[in-house]
Design a protein that fits this description.
alpha/beta, Rossmann fold, seven-stranded mixed beta sheet, 12 helices, about 35% helix
Length: about 325
């Protein structure tokens, strides 16, 4: 067991996957010699060479389109899109090609590619470099979407994503790159679509993912001082998501809050709330409450961004509301 930064865990997952399978290649802007904008791919060019760690032009549609073809041709490309905002430029390749190829060709081909991309605030990067667009991609049949909250999960879920025969969107919150956490030796393996209980509790369930899990944990700590024990569920995978784990937690606590950094409207929380209002209705003793960002672009200013991103106080207030 060693303490490892989130970014380093991703780097190790990429290195281990490339060492284990010669068909795994990396593509993206400045990922080779510079090591990527957040140094996640640092050192991989020296280990695996320019044939497998390839810098690309600033052309997201071309990068992802080429990766779809490479995946269908027998390789396992791992693409880095520098900021999640710029998946907008690659939506045709993702939505109409990667997600649909298996269906269009009668299951005679697969698209084993991973698209890594950072989302979220924390850097005061403004409205075009801070968006959380995971709900868009979770809405597309044929795509899988993953968002880890800690180094061990970052390693395990990335290895699982690379091994998956389907296209996977691997979302990394920028605020987590420097986070330290325990990474077992040997590193863990896992499968997609399985949530974890980050904190047990009896009075209310808080469902979250990515960096917002830590916000939820802070809220749970504050609530514990009020003798309210909140259970925190880390989704880890958004598509598929672990409906059974959320329902089981709701059956224990009978109250539900869903919190994420993405805009609240039409988000992941809306889907979970709707589903639990259906299959978990008999377990509910209070309203399902969502916590998310307001319906506006992410502001540049440090103080404004701090107000924009949902806080632990906002999550705690949502728990108090459902308890009341």
């Amino acid at each position: 067991m060693a303490e490892t930064r989130f970014a380093r865990a991703i780097n190790q997952a990429l290195a281990d996957a490339m060492a284990a399978d010669a068909s795994v290649i990396l593509l993206g802007e400045d990922i080779a010699a510079p090591g990527g904008p957040f140094s996640v791919t640092r050192g991989l060019l020296d280990k695996f060479g320019a044939d497998r760690v390839r810098d690309t032009p600033i052309a997201e549609a071309v990068i992802v389109g080429a990766s779809v073809g490479a995946a269908m041709g027998g390789l396992k490309p791992v693409v880095e899109i520098m900021f999640m905002d710029f998946v907008t430029l690659a939506m045709d390749a993702l939505v109409n090609q990667a997600a649909k190829a298996r269906f269009m060709f009668g299951d005679q081909t697969t698209v084993p590619m991973v698209l890594r991309t950072p989302h979220g605030g924390g850097l005061n990067a403004g409205p075009q470099h801070s968006q959380c667009l995971e709900a868009w991609l979770a809405h597309v049949p044929g795509l899988k979407v993953v968002c880890p909250s800690n180094p061990a999960d970052a390693y395990a879920l990335l290895r699982a994503a690379i091994d998956d025969p389907n296209p996977v969107i691997f979302v990394e919150n920028k605020a987590l790159y420097a986070m330290k956490g325990e990474l077992p030796d040997p590193p863990p393996s896992d499968r997609l679509g399985v949530a974890r209980t980050a904190r047990p509790g009896r009075d209310a369930t808080i469902v979250s993912y990515g960096a917002a899990v830590h916000t939820a944990l802070k809220a749970a700590e504050a609530l514990a001082r009020e003798s309210v024990e909140a259970e925190v569920i880390d989704l880890r995978s958004l598509q598929p998501w672990d409906e059974a784990a959320v329902l089981a937690s709701l059956a224990r606590t009978h109250r539900l809050v869903v919190a994420h950094e993405a805009v609240e409207a039409f988000g992941v929380g809306a889907e979970i709330a709707a589903r639990m209002a259906d299959v978990g209705f008999d377990e509910l003793d209070g309203p399902i409450v969502r916590v998310g960002a307001p319906f506006m672009p992410v502001p540049f200013g440090k103080t404004l961004e701090a107000e924009y991103v949902p806080s632990a106080d906002a999550v705690a207030a949502a728990v108090r509301r459902t308890l009341a």
